[in-house]
Structure formats: structure tokens, C-alpha cells
């Protein structure tokens, strides 16, 4: 998702665009950092406002700070729209929707008194941190992780499918064995218990009461405890592969088609073809010499490569 | 497990066989997806029916839906049997047994009124999802995982053996140290506690009361916390190995017997023998040229490979 | 630990020695399996005997079964001593001590009535399963794991040192912040809580009551949650290295000293020296031919290796 | 951080410096071990003193032991300062500050009666164990781990950022869904619950009461259960890379620039240049022979490398 500014845009608009939507100048980096601080502060205010003792004492301060941030984010949104030639595309994008949603609740209070509770959706704005990180130097790292995730996607799907089945079957089993008094009042409730047990969370709000139930629980817990090794193993292997392939060039050798050369390799390791297009093959020079001279002992050096 | 249809089967039977037992035509894929949806819906109905408040209100709807699915799965089973030349082999197979078990409970209600509770075994049908996944594109991924699991099987067995011993010894120790009032009423109960603690589930229904018991618990928890690194490490290594070997051809080099060539390798990396049977060795052409010409400087290029 | 039998031993003694102390004949394998079954059964009896309802009903059966196993293990111990030339070495070894300890409690009851509770130490006998596994085919797998463990030993020590310090500092912190009413009655108790939290067990018997305590707990939990990646990562890497090195021969190449050849390699990958001592280098034959013939075009094939 | 002693220091001072600040002589190793024992003992005394039943009985002994350790550590600090030419640099360093903080509380009691509670900060002294470990043989291992951590730093940051966002959003969601009676009294409290659930600790002091809340909890628990595979995978891959690169020399080949040679490699694997500066290239000798003789069949051996 990248937004382009109006071609014939005046200076201010161009400058604002670079500051807001890019992140390679000092100004745009300062804007990114200021935005993260503003988002985190507004989030902190919402969090503290939800604590009764704080909202009783500092409620009026929180009220003004909230309005200040609402105005700030509204201005930011207006500037974003002003910068872009086609603001509707931005407004329909994920971060555009989040930005609009984040300021609506406070404005809505002016019309609907009870809308204040919705201010909580502003927390969605923390997601913008991801975008800012993406713009900053985290691109490479995230790409590597996403690459590894994409590769292990099917195995992860298989993993969740297996967990779903194990959970369903154990939940049905425990529902028939355990009494509702122990908390196993329905199969969905037993599934909640099974997930709590299998993910090793173990709240303890629902625990097996019978001996058979406890024996089954032991098996489920051991399964949950050890099955996590599967996605971890798969993901470890995929990350390692991504890191390794990052080191290799994707260009095939013109000599033999081998395509796993290190990015800084000069020769093809398989057939010896010279790969580095920017410099000349030292062997060629020697061959020329060979052509000039008679074939002699120094032919060995060129053949050793 | 693959089922073959009657050789001299008429058109309908053949077509049904392909739709139900295979998954490479649009029709059979649609059938697979419809089957998964039907299974998940029938599972959802059973789950909701077990919740008292829902079964009170929608009990009669659930009743009809359940009969509908029973009829549907009965028809499906009948068609499966009709398609096959030797249905008994299918009926004795794992998925055959599951399919039969899934429809029996509802039919049994007609004979035995109390059999309704058994409807829960229909949940076993979710296991069929695995079979459908296997038929679809998940074969490669699952094979890789199973391959890695098979290789680490012994180490996993060793891991479970060790856990069993640690759990037994800690359970016996805690049974003698802690009083029955704290929940350690017997060694099996202490084993339940030990597994709850070691797998880091920690329900909190049984906790040590004495100082010595707490000290022993700390050791057990630290063991459980860190010992999981062992199967994870083993499995990671095995998955990586499986992925890597997947890249290698299993055919040995006819020149030197080396059998770890990449699947797309043209030359044997060890002795230089040409491996790709579909194309011709470029060196051979050069050799022919060499035979025609007198031995010259371009001999080097053929020796560098 | 391997025990040798009397050199001039008669036939029975030799045969018993092979059956009991080795595991490569059908007889000795049957003995190992019978011993594992006997140990597990005797363990099961002790477990069930500790459950009051079972011991009330089947107490007298358990009593006879226990004596039967005591006699059985006593006979086994006697035969072991009889087989060996120097039984004292065996009796001082780990498994010798375990074997003696396992039968003492039941015999002690004849002298001291209250000694019955000690029968629990018989559970230590389950440790013998490890020895049997070692004798059976698990040697290679265990060696690989131990190899990886030995290599990551220091990093694991460092890991436990770090955990000890984090736990101590967080425990001291929580002891000063939280009140004794919440369960933080002393620093050792706080350490128990810190380990319960950090290992993600989370019994819930001691939980922070104050806001500051909860904030500190969040940090501790996140540390415990993510720090486990460190030993897992280290161990994964070490297992992979062990597996890989298992594939390589430890013999150096006589030509260039390179010592990372695959066990089944014929040539040294670095300098081309022939490694397989059992067969002859195919190039040598060609060279002989070369000497006979005049140097010709087919010299290329021998140089390509 | 390394501290240098006064250049023209007398014999005692030099000897003390070597004993206290280094760790390669038997004397300094003994000092390190004695210091670790002293620190651990003083920590143990503080821990036991915090247990009421022990402090009631042995309070006066603990009092004297505490003063003994305070005097000991004061003398140690004085000697450290005496040894160094610029003690202020040491006193401003991390371990200098810790050393001073560790003895202040006990001395402060002489002035301020209530200061005794501060004795707990002495626990910070356990951190010195890290320094001693660093001085001892753990340098290599720690370097490897730190190297891997440094490489995965960004991915770990990304991981904690993601956790923070997931926790915030789930906390806000649960705060609106669940009632304060269930424990979800504020968003920070819900965040505490979310971290307890996501890290799989699961105290059970706050659990969802409604069905929707339980469904959301299931998703959160499954996320927490499986997301840990990400940092583990990343870290595993990085440790493996660190181990592998440790095996490789950082010196580039003078022939072709290839810089991934094993530390003990004699030839460059890519271009065949002789790397081992301490011995002579065996091929050169052969070449000399070649120059003496006429070019013959044994030319092959030198070309095969």
C-alpha cells in the first residue's frame, strides 16, 4: 500500500506528503516518533481513565487530554487527506479505516451522549505502530519472518486442525465422564477447559473431579506440553532456511544452471564459470598468456580453480 | 488405503467413485468441501445441543437437524458401499468404522430410548477432515512432518520415559512429605499433581503446603520448564534435515556412487559425471571438437568444470 | 559399567550372565522385557496400594503380590551376585545400590513393623528401565542427546544462573511491595511464587494484590515466557550439529588433512585423494591406460573428478 | 570494563589487584570462588531472616552474621579502591555501584533505625556472579549467546511489540464484554489478565465468566501457546548461525576473495589457493618436480585438487 500525491502539487503539499507518508528524511522520522508517542500517550490516558480511582480524581484532566488527542488526530487525518490526490483509496485502506475509527467516538459524544464507551476502539490505533515499524528499518526482519511463516503456513494450519480435533474429542469425552458440578456443564464449556489445559494455561476454574477424568487430563496435558515442539521445530527450520537463502543469489549460473551461489561469489562452485560481471575473470588473462606462450607448467594454476 | 471400484462398473458408479474417493476433479473437490461443511455443522449442532439454555429453546430444531444429518451421512455411506466392489474392506478400514459409528447412535434411539447420549461419538467424524486434507494438497507437508516425527520417535520415547520416571519419583516423594489434607491423598493423585506441575499447566487445585514440599516443587517446575527444550531441539533438527533432504535426489551418481545431489543438479559434484539424462553433457561436444582439432588452449575450459 | 564373569565359570553361570547382563540374544532380550514388566507391575501395585479405597478392598492381595515381587527381585539379585566374579563392584554401582534398596523395605518389615512405608523407595527401580534401554537399541539416540547436552552444558548453567538471579531479585522486590496477607510472607515464599510465575506454571495459590505488584508480575511473566527460547535455541542448534557430525567420518584425508568427509565418501572433496580403502580408485586404472596410450582427449574425464 | 592499577604500584598492591580483578592465577580463582560462596551465604542469611519462625529463633545469630558479611564486603571494597589508581571510575561502574549499595543498608542502621529493611538490596550483589562467570571460562559461551541475541534483537522487539498490541486489544475487548465482578475492573487489570493468559501462566485469579469472554479467551490462549514458536525459531536459527560462523575463519582468500573457509582449511575451497601460511603447499613441490621432469601422467594429482 503506497499512496501517491497529486502530480502538480504545490510545495507545502509535497513536503507534507514526504513527512507523513515516507520515513527517510529527518523530518519524517521525527513525525513518526512523535506519532508513536502521541498514540501511546492517548492509549495510556484511555487505560488510566478506565481505572475508577484515577478517573474519579483526574477525570476532568483525562477529558481535556482526550479532546486534545482527538483534535490532534483529526488534524492529522485532514492533512493526510489534503496531501493525497486520491484520498478515498487511503480512506478505504486498513490504516485509513483505523484512523477514522479512532477519532469518531469522541466526536460522536457531541451527538449521542452514551457513545463515550466507544472511545476504546481508539486502541486500534496502536496497530499503526506496525506501519511505522514497517516504514522504518524493520522491513528486512519482518520480511524474513513473514517468509518463514508463509512457508510453514500449511504445517501451522495442520497443527491447528489437529488441536481442534484433539480438543473436540477430549471435550466430548470429559463431558460424558465428568459431572456438571465440576464445571463440565456442556461440550463448549469442556472445550474451553480442554484448551485451557492443552495450552498449559491451567486457570484452575474447571478441574477434573473423578479419577478417570484426571487420568484423561494427564494425557491431554502431556500432549499439549509436547505437541508445541512441532510448530516450533517447523518454524525454526523455516527461519534458518530463510536466513540461508537470503545469503544466496537467485541468479542462475550461465554455464551450468546451478542457482545456489552466495551473493558475493565470483565463480560458479559447480562448473567454474565466472559470475561477477563487474570484474574480469583472472583465468582469462592467464589463458591469453597461455595462447601467447607455449603450453607450460603454469597451466596447472589455471586448472586448479 | 485406496479402494478400487468394480471393473465392469456402469457409468454412474464410476462417476460417483471418482467424486467420493478421489479429489482431483472439480466435482470431487466440491464434494470434499461440502462434506467438511456438513461434518462441522453437525458437530456444531451437537456442541450447541449440549448447552442447556440452547437445547431448551432450540431443542426441536436440533432434533430435526440431527436427523437430517443422520439421513445425509447414511445416504453417503450407502453410496460409498454401492460404489465399491469390495465394501467390506472399506467397512473394516479406520474411516469406514468411523463412518458407521457416526450414524449408529441416532438410529439406535428408535430401538433403545436412552441411546441418544451416544450421539457424541459422531464427533469422531471430524477425524475424516484429516483424510480429506490428505487427499488435498497437504500430502507433502504432512509427509515431511511425519518423516521428522519418525526419525525423532526414539528420542521422543526416551523423553516420555524420562518424564514418567521423574513424575513417579517426585509423586512418591511428595506423597510421603505432604499431608492428604493438601490434596496428596495417594501416589496416583500425586502423579496427577506432578504432571500438572511439570507440564506447566498449574491448575492450583493441589498445591504443596509445607516448605520442603514447596522446595521440591520448585525443582520440579524448573525441570518441566527447561526439559521441553529437549524434544523441541530434536524435532527442529529433524525437520530441518527432512527439508534439506527433500532437496536432494535419492539417485546415486553412476560415476562414483555419491548420492546427495540436488534434484536439479546437472553434474555430480564429487566426480563430475553428467547426471541430467534429458539433456546432453556440453563437455562431450567439446571433447568431440578436441578430437577433431589438435589439443589446444581451449582444453582448459573443459577441465575447469 | 560392565561386569565380567568368573573366567573359569561353569556353563550355567556363563549362560545366566549372558541372559542377565547382556542383551543381544533372544533369551537376554526376553529377560529384559520380563524385568521391565515386573518392575512396572510392582510399581503399579505400590501406586494402587496408596489409594485408600483400593487398599481397603484389595489390601491383602497387594500384600501377597508385594511379597511375591520382593522374593522375585531377591532371587534376581542373588543370581546377579552368583554370576559375577566380583559382586562387590556390582553392589557398589548405581544399579546395584538401587537393586538392594528396592528389596530392603519389605524384608525390614519382619524386623521393624513401621518400615512398610519405606516400600516406596522401590519406585527407584523404575530407573533400571534406563539401563535396559541403554542395553537395547537406544544407545545411538541417547548418545546424540547427551552429546548435544554436554555441548550446551555451560549455556544451560548460565541459563539457570540467570533464572536464579531474576527469581531472587523479583522475590525480594515483591516481598517489600506485597503484604504478607497476599501470601508473600517471606523471601523464600516469594521465590516460590516467582518460580511458579516464571516457569508459567501459575498455580494461583499466591497472586499479587497491589497494582505495582501486578505490573512487576507482568514483566516477570513475559520474561519467563520468552526466556525459554534461549535454551531451546541453543539445544536445537547443538542437536543439529551432533546429527550432522554423526554423518561425517572423523578420519582425516591423507592427502590434505581435510577431516569433514561424509562417512561413505570415496574421494576427498577438497583435494581429490581416494579415501575408500576397500576398493580401488577408478582414476588409477585410467591413468595406467593413459601411460599405455599416448596422452589423448579422454584424459579430461580423469581430470574432471 | 577493565580497571588498571597504578603504574608504579608496590608489590602488595599489584598482587592484590591480580587476585581481585583477574582470574587466571590459582590465587585469583580461589578469591572468586570464596567471593561467590560469601555472596551466596549472605543471600541465604537474608532469605532465612525474612522467614518469621527462623528470625524469631536465630535472629541474633543472623544479626551477627549480617554484620560479619557487611564488614567483610566493606574490607573487600576498601581493598578494591586501594588497588586501583582511579577508584572513582570503578565506583561509577555498574559493579562498583552494586558493591557500595550492598554494604550501605547495614551501616545506615547505625544512623537511621528503620533502615534495616533496605538490607534486601544486598541481594543485588548476586549479580556479581555474572562478572565472575565472565572472568572465568564462560566468556565464549556467553559471547555466542549474546551474538545470537544481538542478531535476533529486532525480531524480538517486533515480537514484544506484537504481544503488547494483542494484549491491549484483547484487554479492551474483555473489559467491555466481561463485568467488573469477574475481575475485569479496568483495562490495566484486563491487560494483567491478558498477559497471565497469553504467557500460559494462568493463575486463575481472574477468569472469564461469560460465554463470549470464554470464546475470546480460547483464541488468546491458542495465540499465546503457538506464538512462542516465533522467537524460539528465530533464536534457534541465529544460535546455529553463530556456532557455524565460529567454525569459519574471517580471513578472505588472497586468490579469489572467498571468505567462508573453515578455520583449519589448507586450501581455498573455491579457487584452490593455499591458505595455511605455516606449512608449504604440497602442490608446489610437485610442480617443481614437474618442471624438472617432463610433463607426465602424475600431473593429474596436482590438477585434481
UniProtKB/TrEMBL annotation, chains A, B, C, D:
Where in or outside the cell? Membrane
Spans annotated as Disordered: 277-305
Going by the UniProt record, its keywords in alphabetical order are: Ion channel, Ion transport, Membrane, Potassium, Potassium channel, Potassium transport, Transmembrane, Transmembrane helix, Transport
Q: Which molecular function term from Gene Ontology is one that the record holds?
A: voltage-gated potassium channel activity
Which intervals carry biased composition (Basic and acidic residues)? 281-295
User: Residue spans with biased composition (Polar residues)?
Assistant: 296-305
InterPro entries registered for this protein in UniProt: Ion_trans_dom, VG_K_chnl
Any idea where the Ion transport domain is?
Answer: 29-236
* Annotated TM spans: 30-49, 61-82, 94-124, 156-177, 219-240
Q: Respond yes or no to whether keyword Transmembrane helix is given for this record.
A: yes
> What are the GO BP annotations of this UniProt entry?
action potential
Q: How does the protein's chain sit in the membrane according to the entry?
A: Multi-pass membrane protein
What are its GO cellular component terms? voltage-gated potassium channel complex
Q: What is its main location?
A: membrane
Q: Does the keyword Cell membrane apply?
A: no
Query: Which protein, by its recorded name, is this?
Result: Ion transporter
User: Which source organism does the UniProt entry give?
Assistant: Vreelandella andesensis
Amino acid at each position: 500500500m503506497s499512496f501517491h500525491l497529486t502530480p502538480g502539487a504545490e510545495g507545502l503539499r509535497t513536503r507534507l506528503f514526504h513527512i507523513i507518508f515516507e520515513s527517510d528524511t529527518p523530518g519524517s522520522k521525527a513525525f513518526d516518533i512523535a506519532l508513536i508517542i502521541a498514540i501511546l500517550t492517548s492509549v495510556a490516558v484511555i487505560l488510566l481513565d478506565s481505572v475508577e480511582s484515577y478517573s474519579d480524581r483526574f477525570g476532568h484532566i483525562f477529558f481535556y487530554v482526550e479532546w486534545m488527542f482527538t483534535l490532534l488526530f483529526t488534524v492529522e487525518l485532514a492533512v493526510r487527506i489534503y496531501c493525497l490526490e486520491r484520498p478515498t483509496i487511503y480512506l478505504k485502506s486498513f490504516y485509513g479505516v483505523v484512523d477514522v475509527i479512532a477519532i469518531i467516538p469522541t466526536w460522536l459524544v457531541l451527538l449521542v451522549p452514551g457513545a463515550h464507551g466507544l472511545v476504546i476502539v481508539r486502541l486500534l490505533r496502536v496497530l499503526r505502530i506496525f506501519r511505522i515499524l514497517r516504514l522504518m528499518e524493520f522491513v528486512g526482519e519482518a520480511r524474513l519472518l513473514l517468509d518463514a511463516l508463509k512457508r510453514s503456513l500449511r504445517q501451522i494450519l495442520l497443527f491447528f486442525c489437529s488441536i481442534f480435533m484433539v480438543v473436540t474429542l477430549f471435550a466430548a469425552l470429559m463431558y460424558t465422564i465428568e459431572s456438571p458440578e465440576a464445571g463440565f456443564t456442556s461440550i463448549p464449556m469442556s472445550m474451553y477447559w480442554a484448551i485451557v489445559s492443552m495450552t498449559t494455561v491451567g486457570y484452575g476454574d474447571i478441574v477434573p473431579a473423578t479419577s478417570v477424568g484426571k487420568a484423561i487430563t494427564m494425557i491431554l496435558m502431556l500432549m499439549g506440553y509436547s505437541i508445541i515442539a512441532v510448530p516450533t521445530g517447523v518454524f525454526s527450520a523455516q527461519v534458518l532456511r530463510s536466513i540461508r537463502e537470503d545469503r544466496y543469489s537467485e541468479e542462475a549460473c550461465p554455464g551450468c544452471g546451478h542457482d545456489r551461489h552466495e551473493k558475493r561469489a565470483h565463480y560458479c562452485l559447480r562448473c567454474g564459470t565466472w559470475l561477477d560481471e563487474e570484474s574480469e575473470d583472472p583465468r582469462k588473462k592467464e589463458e591469453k598468456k597461455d595462447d601467447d606462450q607455449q603450453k607450460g607448467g603454469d597451466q596447472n594454476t589455471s586448472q586448479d580453480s
